[in-house]
Amino acid sequence: MNNSFDAPPVFNRPSTKAMIVAVFTALSLATNYALIGFQNVKLMDTLVFIVAFLFGVRLGIGVAVSTWLVYGLVNPNGVDGPIILSFLILGECFYALSGAILSRTSVGQELSRMKSTDDSSRITGRTSVFRKLGRRIRKLNPTRSLVFALVGLQATFGYDLLTNFASWLFLTTSLYQAFIIGNLVGAPFSIAHEGSNVIFFATVAPAVIVATGRMGIGFHARGRHK
Question: For the segment 73-116, what is each residue's pLDDT rounded down to a tens digit?
């Protein structure tokens, strides 16, 4: 048994870490803009969670911060002010913390013991990445999916409480009023956010983690039991 959370040498390289953050930030931004017409339905939260689960909390936070610094300032729905943006970034870090914590549980340890296979990582001309991901989702373990869904719901609930409060912080006469009014007014948006994230966390997150684990990618969860 190895209790170290250190990554293999290749993952410890600053250039590799920067590449991981850049790739997942690009994916988060691309999916955010693609879903711009669907209010509070975003894959970004799931991607931040996945990065933290696979590569550690620091890289997850890196993706959260990098994505919001771009999306908060270059957004067709409006630019966020520095105070609101700070709360959005802080809330997004909840997903990174959730991913890192879950990777240390028995669920994370179970995923960490999955063997890498050449067959799982090979993509043929006739089989797309999305088709493979779809097969993974159909074969998901129901108990594992439920755990991921509950973790996603908890993180999203905390995010919504924080950001709804922040949106009314300067529109009311007290912090209590800002919290109550912000979350009452924001309830419909919170429901959409939490509902969509439950689906994404129950399906996309475990499917991607299993797939990358079988390809030998990600060290954070697997660094303990060898």
Answer: 998 888 888 999 999 999 999 999 999 999 988 887 777 666 55
Helices 187-214 and 142-167: crossing angle, nearest 10°?
A: 140
From the list 66, 72, 190, 207, the residue with the least C-alpha distance to 139 is 207
Cβ(167)–Cβ(182) below 8 Å:
yes
The CA distance from 6 to 220, in Å, is 8
> Which of 46, 30, 33 minimizes the C-alpha distance to 75?
33
Question: What's the rounded Cα separation, in Å, for the pair 45 and 152?
Answer: 9
Distance CA 60, CA 78 (A): 25
Query: CA 224, CA 226: separation in Å to the nearest integer?
Result: 6
Question: Which domains are assigned to the chain?
Answer: 9-214 (1.10.1760)
The predicted-structure confidence for 28-41, as pLDDT tens digits, reads as follows 999 999 999 888 89
Cα–Cα distance between 207 and 145 in angstroms, integer? 9
pTM for the structure as a whole: 0.83
The C-alpha atoms of residue 102 and residue 226 are separated, in whole angstroms, by: 19
Structure tokens, 121: 């990582």
Q: ∠ at Cα 47 (209, 3), nearest 5°?
A: 50
CB-CB contact of 117 with 132 (8 Å): no
* Residue 211 banded pLDDT, cuts 50, 70, 90: confident
Length of the chain: 226
Q: Are 133 and 120 in contact (CB under 8 A)?
A: no
